[in-house]
Amino acid sequence: MSTTREQPIFSTRAHVFQIDPATKRNWIPASKHALTVSYFYDATRSVYRIISVGGTKAIINSTITPNMTFTKTSQKFGQWADSRANTVYGLGFASEQHLSQFAEKFQEVKEAARLAREKCQDKTELTNPALSITSHQVLPSPIISSNGPGEDKLFRSQSADVEITTEKERLKKMLSEGSVSEVQWEAEFFSLQDNNTKLVAALHEANANVDQWKKQLAAYQEETETLRQRVAELESQGAQDSPSENNKEELSQTLEELELLIKAKDEEIQMLKSQKCGGHWEAEGEREETLQKLQELEQRNAELEQRLQLAEQSLAESLAEREKMQNEVTKVAEVMDVKIFELSEIRQGLAKLVESN
Fold first, then answer.
1. Contact partners, residue 25, CB within 8 Å, separation at least 6
2. 122-172 pLDDT, tens digit each
3. Mapping DSSP to helix (H, G, I), strand (E, B) and coil, where does residue 10 land?
4. How many alpha carbons lie under 13 Å from residue 333 in its C-beta half-sphere?
5. Using CB atoms within 10 A of its CB, is residue 318 exposed (0-12), middle (13-18) or buried (19+)?
6. Considering only CA atoms, which of 10, 18, 187 is closest in space to residue 92?
7. pTM recorded for the entire structure
8. Which of 103, 206, 207, 297 reaches 20 to 30 Å from 282, CA-CA?
């Protein structure tokens, strides 16, 4: 690409994208970072171009024609189609102001390209009137004039000049289009070479990771099966321990009965004590018998309290064991959910890999 005869008239920085040639919908980033995008003017050929270079290759080399249109698709993104390059370019700007400046410059350059083309056409028609005639009407076939062979020679000479001029214009056009196509082909070649290298590297990496994913998948499947067996064991153990609910109910009922009995005995002891303090005993033997009965009742009360403590301790241990078992089942279920989720993600990754291969 020769820029010695071209001068930049406007430059900005933007992220460059090209439309995916396969889907014609998705955007493919041309580089990882923002690039300099410039408008160039070739005074020799009166041609305006948008050029952006990334590294050693031309990312954008688009000749602006009057029929092109720059479209703002969002606040910071715009695009235009280039039929010669058979693609659609997209630019992502850092701000809406940069997008507006680029769009205004595109409209100015487009209008300048239209005026340059009209001026070139007018100049061609003025310098080559015979060429303008051939572009609008069909010349008649050479006819031998009745005035003599001299005028016939003059007519043949003018026709040859027209053909030579037309051939020169056609060659100039082919050369100008050839220089643009050469840059486009070179950019496309480097782009294809880049994509091919990336695809080969991705393929090697995918093939290297397939075995590792398969091993990881087998390990997850084995671990999942182990967790399922553990859950089944815990569920069966919980089913076996379900009769303990009846035992708990019986213990609770026994505790209530013991508490009522202790309360009744306490009331009886208090009554006996009050009778001892308030009344006068008629005989010493009756007093001793009452004291012995009181001691027996106190001993019975102590035994009942001990049984009550044992029953409460047994109930607390049973409740703690049940809560521990429920927590363990919950943890195993959560681990199983995580492993099943990871297993599904690995399967999806393998399916995508198989589709891409």
1. 19
2. 666 555 544 443 444 433 333 333 344 443 333 334 444 555 666 666 666
3. strand
4. 9
5. middle
6. 18
7. 0.36
8. 297
